[in-house]
Every structure is written in C-alpha cells, then in structure tokens.
Design brief:
Ribosomal Protein L4, Chain: A; six-stranded mixed sheet; 6 strands; 33% helix; 14% strand
C-alpha cells in the first residue's frame, strides 16, 4: 500500500489516502500504454471515407474505338482510372478501423496510466469535486491556486452539476465520471485529479 496526500479544491490539506500498489504503484510500461492509445484512436475513426471506383462511375459501356487498325492502345472502357472522369484506382472505402485488444490488456493499460501519473507526481487527490455555485471565474481561481491549468478531473459515479458547468468553459480542462476514465484522456492532460470517490471506485474495480 502507498499513501497519497489529499487536498481540497481550496488548497487545504485533507489528510491522506491509502491506495493499492497494484493500481497506482506499477512501473509504467510505454509499450502497453501505446497499444491502448492506438486501439482507442483507431476505434474513434469514423471510417466513412469513400471514393468511386470504376464500378461506381456512370458512363457508357460501349467500346471506345475498334480493337485493331487505329494504332492506339487496346482500350475498352471509359470508366478506367487512366481517363478523366474515370474511377479512382485503389481509393479509400468505408470500413471500420477498429482493432481487437484483449480486455486484460485494456485494464492493465489503465493501471499503468494511473501509475505513470503517480510516479511523475502529476496525480492529485481531492476530497470532493463540488462547487458552491456554477461560476467559472470562481473555479478558475481555485484551480490556479492548485496549479491546474491543464488537467483531467475524474469524479464519482455522478458529477456535481455546478462543478461540471463551471468547468465546461475552461480550456484544457476535462471532467469525466469514473466510469468514463480512459488511458488517452489521462495521458493527453498534464495533471490527473481524482476525487476520493473515484479512487475508491478504481480500487474496487481492480480488486
């Protein structure tokens, strides 16, 4: 077990929290993190790109000119890719870019991402993600006091509405419930801020 210091959004000390080495104390492996990030980004691709091949072009099917005697090449179709207005050769087709990644590797990737943030001292535990009112200016003041200008906030199963609304207009700040936590969002932000409820949920998830 390892001890992590806990703070409040106001910057006051709020004790400490014992967390499992199996979740926050691993030696980060970049190969696993890369596999999970590539899997996430490939899954996000729409794959709706599509060009017209020669079978999709609406053009006459008549032979362009007679086979022999003209001195020209033996062409048959004006839909062929070498002609203006013809089909595209080997163009993109609508498809899924998603790849397979075992569930155990995905879970391991999340644990390594959490451990990487903890090892780099980029992990902050707060007692609660709650705002007194949905004022962005007030929240910016609190975050600047904690040195958070580029951060991912992970709350419990339900995010406080006032906090979520106040944070929604702040650039480079993301807010997610604990069930939405993922490797890509953790790594793309400088700091990871977990609420006490989020830590407990993650500990339970990987028990």
């Amino acid at each position: 077990m390892m001890e992590l210091k806990m703070t409040t959004l106001a910057g006051d000390a709020a004790g400490s929290l014992s967390v499992s080495d199996e979740v926050f104390g691993l030696e980060p492996r970049t190969d696993i993190l890369q596999r999970v990030v590539l899997w996430q980004l490939a899954k996000k691709q729409q794959g709706t790109h599509q060009s017209k091949g020669r079978a999709d072009i609406s053009r006459t099917g008549a032979k362009m000119f007679r086979q022999k005697g003209t001195g020209r090449a033996r062409h048959s179709s004006a839909r062929a890719p070498q002609f203006r207005g013809g089909g595209k050769a080997h163009g993109p087709v609508a498809r899924s870019h998603e790849t397979d990644l075992p569930k155990k590797v995905r879970a391991l990737g999340l644990r390594h991402a959490l451990s990487a943030k903890a090892k780099a001292s980029e992990l902050i535990i707060v007692d609660d993600l709650k705002a007194a009112d949905a004022k962005t200016k007030t929240l910016i003041g609190q975050l600047s006091g904690l040195g958070l200008d580029n951060a991912l906030f992970i709350g419990g199963a339900e995010i406080d509405g006032a906090f979520k609304n106040a944070a929604s207009n702040i650039p480079h700040v993301d807010v997610l419930p604990v069930q939405g936590i993922n490797v890509y969002d953790i790594l793309r932000r400088n700091k990871l801020v977990l609420s006490k409820a989020a830590v407990e949920a993650l500990e339970e998830r990987f028990k």
